[in-house]
Amino acid sequence: MPPMFKPLEIFIGLRYTRAKRRNHFISFISLSSMLGIMLGVTALITVLSVMNGFHKEVRERILGMASHATIKGVSGELAQWPQAIKLVQDHPEVTGQAPFVEAQAMLANGQQASGAIVRGILPEREPLVSDVGEHMRYGALADLTPGAWNIVLGRELALVLDVMPGDKVTLVTPNLNVTPAGLMPRLRSFTVSGIFEVGMGEYDRGVALMAMQDAARLLRMGDNVTGIRLKLRDLYDAPRISRELANQLPGLYRVSDWTLEHRNFFAALQTEKRMMGLILFLIVAVAAFNIVSTLVMVVTDKQSDIAILRTLGASAGSVMMIFIVQGATLGLLGTLLGMAGGVGLSLNLEAIVASVERAFGIHFLDPNIYYISRFPSDLHWNDVGLIGASAFVISLLATLYPAWRASRVQPAEALRYE
Fold it and tell me: How far is residue 234's CA from residue 300's CA, in Å, rounded to a whole number?
C-alpha cells in the first residue's frame, strides 16, 4: 500500500492528527491548542511590531533635535571650533557638522514665565544635523539673522508664554551684570520670529532657538561656542565613531553620542519591549501546554491501538515518536498560521486601524495627547523568526511527557478488558 512507503511513526502520527475520532472532545481540544498557538504568535508579532514602530517614531523625533554625536570643550567652551570641524569632516562616517551655543535661561512675557534651554545656531548649517527646519509651523530658521535678536520657540513653550510670531519675550540668563544696585541678571528682549513642533514635549516645551552670534554675545562667549553637533551616516554606530573622533582630535575634548545622552530613556524602552514580549509569550506557552492535555487524552483513548502496535513489534521509541509527530504537527500548524497572521496584520495594521476608526467614528490615539495619530508598525523579520522558532520548540517540548507515557503502555494491561 502507498502509505507504507512512509516512515511508520510519521504516517500514524499524521493519521491520528487528521482522522475522525470517536471522542469529539479530544478533537475540539486539539483544535483549541492549535488556535491558541496561532493567536498567541499573531498577537506577539503584531504587538512587537507596533512597539518597534513607536520606538522608531520616538527615536526619530528625539534625533530630529538631538545630535548623533557632540564635541564639547572640557571647560564648557570650545575655542578652536573651525579647526575641529575641519578635522571631523575628513571622517568618512560624518555627514554633517554644525557649531552651537547652549545655555539654560528663563523666558518671560508679562506674568508668564518658563525655563528653557536656549540654543544658538547657524541657520545655514542647522539642516545638516537636525530636521527642526522641516517642523516649522510659523516662520523659518533663516529669520535668525545676527543682530536681529529674533527667537524661535517650541509650540508648547509658546502656548505657556502666550505669544505668537511678532510678539516680544524677555530672556533672562544666569550671567550677572554689576550695577550700582548690585548684581543683576542679564536681560534681553527678543522678537518671536517662528514656532516649531517636533512632537516631543521635551523639545516643544523646553527649547528656544536663536542666532549663534546673538547667543554668544548674550552669554559673553566671544568667538567661542559650546560645541559642535555631528550627524553620522549610521546612527547606531555612534559609540564607535565617537571613540574614534576622541582619539583623533588633538587637545582636550569631550565627545559624547546620543546613546549616552538618552541612555536611560532608550534603555527603558528596550526593557518595556522585553517585558511585553515575555508577558505575551506566556499566551503561546499556555496554548502549547494545552497540547499536553490533548495528547494525554489521546494516549488514554488509543491504548488498545498502542498495545496492538507493540504486539506487532513496534518499539517503545516508535510509539513515542508517533505522539511526538502528532503534537509537533499541531504546534507547527499553529505556529505557521500565527506567523502568517502576524506578518499580514503588521504590514497592514495602519490601514486596518484607519478603517475601523472611520467605520465607528473613534480615534484610538488622540494626537493632542500622544502626538501620534496612527499606529506605527515596524516589522522585524528576526523577531518573526525568533517567535516562530520559540513557539515550535515549546510545542515540541510539550509533547515529550505524553509521548513518554504512551511508550510505557503495557500491551497485556491495555488489552485485558478489550
Answer: 59
- 26: Cβ contacts below 8 Å, ≥ 6 apart: 294, 297, 298, 301
Q: For residues 98 and 141, is the Cβ–Cβ distance under 8 A?
A: no
Q: How far is CA 1 from CA 277, 326, 344, 368, in A?
A: 48, 22, 41, 70
Lookup: cell for 226: 559650546
Which three three-digit cell numbers place residue 120?
A: 544658538
Query: What are the φ and ψ backbone dihedral angles of 284, each rounded to 5 degrees?
Result: -65, -40
Q: Which one, of 72, 68, 65, lies nearest residue 91 by Cα? A: 68
Domain map of the chain by residue range?
2-60+266-415, 67-257
Q: Nearest CA to 107 among 62, 156, 67?
A: 156
Crossing angle (nearest 10°) for helices 263-301 and 400-407:
20
**Tens-level pLDDT at each residue, the chain (418 residues):** 344 334 766 666 666 665 555 556 666 777 777 888 888 889 889 888 888 888 887 777 777 777 888 888 777 788 888 888 888 888 888 888 999 999 889 999 988 889 899 999 999 999 888 888 888 999 999 999 998 999 999 999 999 999 999 999 999 887 655 555 455 567 889 999 999 988 777 788 889 999 999 999 888 888 889 989 999 888 888 888 888 888 877 767 788 888 877 777 777 777 887 888 788 778 777 777 777 777 777 777 676 777 776 676 677 777 778 778 878 888 888 899 999 999 998 888 888 887 887 788 777 666 555 556 567 888 889 889 988 998 888 888 888 888 887 777 666 565 555 5
From the number of C-beta atoms within 10 Å of its C-beta (0-12, 13-18, 19+), residue 357 rates as middle
- In this structure, what are the phi and psi dihedrals at residue 127, rounded to the nearest 5 degrees? -60, -15
User: What is the rounded distance in angstroms from the CA atom of residue 406 to the CA atom of residue 317?
Assistant: 10
- Phi, psi (degrees; rounded to nearest 5) at 222: 65, -130
Dihedral of CA atoms 60, 63, 212, 107 in degrees, nearest 10, equals: 80
| The C-alpha cell that represents 213 in the structure block | 552670534
Tell me the chain's radius of gyration from C-alpha atoms. Answer: 33
Reported pTM: 0.68
Q: What DSSP state is assigned to residue 78?
A: B
